[in-house]
Write a structure and sequence with these properties.
Length: about 375
């Protein structure tokens, strides 16, 4: 088996993640913050430990500004629906995932307007085009850090400076970069940072985070039990309780903490360097294959470990199926929940095949994948 779908969910996870989840489930999976006994207190301490690890990773000074969610989609919905008001205007790029675009389209029914700044076919964005899109009622710029279709890394530090200059809120979708790319919420002038736990943070599915800059208040999307201020029937205002109603996913959060500990032990730089080598290997070899079209920068310095391609006249789903069925290579095909990105590169009708290597892939696996694609391309050419 060769797994190359890490942009969707990393697999496998570090061994310590499995161990942490198992230990939690077997030894202290009580309800955190709801009781005063030893198991409940232990669960609460482990959750706070993960909160501190996430804060350290992104240079967040106050861990209590981190909200645990179910995934990045959950985080983005809270950030967008919690802060935007009727007549507000939001600017996004043409690379955004549906987890950002769909909530904004839903909010457009409440008189919130949207401008999409078009990227070029390689995924690059022009800062002047963003500046031109700003108007008097612009409230926020919300953008992905890296495209899940092209891998292109957007210049978020510069975009953050643009936000600061124009007194705009800045929401970063770090779904493809959290854990492998340098992210400092202060350097990036970031007001909201959304990320899933199950991708490059190496944690379990069902986990996500939302950073909220101090001084900003969001409307809650749900209210309920928090284990705090229980004598009151109104939602507590303290963070993170205000946005964490209901029992948290303790085993998942503990596993997320173990994933981040692995990142610190290996270092993001080492993980990123390995993924860059594998990505560049794919790019260099597939560029030479007749009938194969690559999309995006095709430069591992400018993209994360995501590479989309097609074999001429072959449906992307068929290519993915054959890689799975004949070679036991697992990739993703189609639109990757990002129709704007596919419209940008002209593949809205066909979709693409996406290769997304991770830290646990080897050069030998990449070589076997390249050979499989070469074979499929030759087969198509001979028909």
């Amino acid at each position: 088996m060769i797994y190359l779908d890490n942009a969707a969910t990393t697999f496998p996870k570090p061994e310590r993640v499995y161990q942490a989840v198992d230990e939690c489930m077997r030894e202290y999976a009580a309800n955190p913050g709801r009781s005063g006994h030893k198991l409940s207190l232990k669960a609460g301490r482990e959750i706070y430990k993960t909160r501190e690890l996430v804060a350290k990773l992104f240079n967040i000074s106050n861990p209590m500004q981190l909200i645990f969610t179910s995934n990045a989609t959950d985080s983005l919905n809270l950030a967008l629906k919690g802060i935007l008001n009727p007549s507000d205007h939001v600017i996004v790029s043409s690379l955004e995932h549906n987890s950002l675009i769909r909530p904004l389209k839903g909010l457009s029914e409440k008189s919130i307007s949207l401008s999409v700044v078009k990227c070029n076919p390689e995924g690059s964005i022009n800062l002047d085009d963003i500046q031109k899109a700003i108007n008097p009622n612009t409230r926020m710029i919300a953008m992905t850090h890296a495209s899940n279709v092209l891998g292109t890394i957007l210049p978020l530090k510069e975009i953050g400076e643009l936000c600061r200059k124009n007194n705009l809120l800045f929401l970063i979708d770090a779904s493809q970069t959290a854990g492998i790319c340098h992210i400092d919420v202060n350097e990036m002038a970031c007001d909201f940072l959304a990320a899933p736990g199950h991708k490059s943070l190496l944690g379990p599915q069902g986990t996500g985070i939302l950073y909220i800059k101090e001084g900003l208040e969001l409307r809650t999307l749900k209210e309920g039990g928090t284990g705090s201020k229980s004598e009151e029937i109104t939602q507590p205002l303290i963070l993170p309780d205000r946005y964490e109603s209901g029992t948290l996913n303790t085993p998942g959060i503990v596993g997320l903490g173990a994933g981040i500990e692995f990142i610190f032990s290996e270092t993001s730089e080492k993980i990123r360097a390995h993924e860059k080598r594998l990505t560049q290997y794919l790019i260099d070899e597939l560029k030479q294959v007749r009938g194969v079209t690559l999309y995006g920068p095709c430069d591992s310095r400018k993209q994360v470990a995501v590479l989309s391609f097609n074999i001429e006249d072959r449906d992307s789903s068929e290519t993915a199926y054959l890689l799975d069925d004949e070679y036991d290579i697992y990739v993703r095909s189609g639109l990757h929940c990002a129709p704007l990105a596919h419209k940008t590169i002209g593949t809205l009708e066909s979709g693409t095949v996406r290769l997304s290597p991770g830290y646990f892939n080897t050069e030998d696996e990449i070589l076997k994948t390249i050979e499989a694609i070469k074979t499929l391309s030759r087969q198509k050419a001979s028909i």
